[in-house]
Amino acid sequence: MLNLFTLAMVAFIAALIDTSLGMCYGTILAPILLIAGYSPEVVVPTVLFSQLIVDIGGGLTHTKVKNFTRKDIRVALLVAIPATIFAFLGVFLNVNLPKIVTKIYVGLIVTILGLLLLLGIKLRKTSKRLLFISSIAGFNKGFMGGGFGPVVVSGQIVLNHDVRPSVSIGDIAEIPVCIAGLLAFAVLGKLSFISIYLIVTIPALIASLIGPHITMKIGQKNYTEKVIGVATLAIGFITLLKIVLS
Question: How many CB atoms lie within 10 A of CB 244?
């Protein structure tokens, strides 16, 4: 069983990556918590709660360093509203549906988005496409605790959105999604605050104040899309590989 210091360090690293690249917090932290012996009913709300704090801290910092500006508010709403609605559905199915079903589709979608980024393929940005991507991402968050950022951030970039606002929107739009997920767990009677919440949240919050500064620097480089593409593709591939091996 992993010790608490290790879990705190994993949370810090996951939050640093999440607030700088817009992905991987739940994708990294959720399986580590499972390995540490926590049940899925504890893992998902733990990730949702700590992610909420990370997104608030990261969102404020993204705004401060101008990764997120007023002109990005409309896109953030187009991401946040459907994602929040579908997060409720994800939580409900978390209790009632085999995990392998969602893992397969998450793995496939994330892999495809990663390939599109690496190949430099861009699609015309439309509200319908953004709503579709956001709905999938919200469902992922409610169902698994992760899989929001890789879909939202890479999806926005594929739809010709700049890197810096794409990353910041991914963090900011996730705030109501996390709230919705926590409320859904509360309604289902599966939410109880325990010490692991604080153990991962405090170091994650510290990291969230650093990550946006990294976004500001790397967002000005022409290789950033490829970095996000590689990260997205790796997440999708690892998700599918775990299914095959299990």
Answer: 7
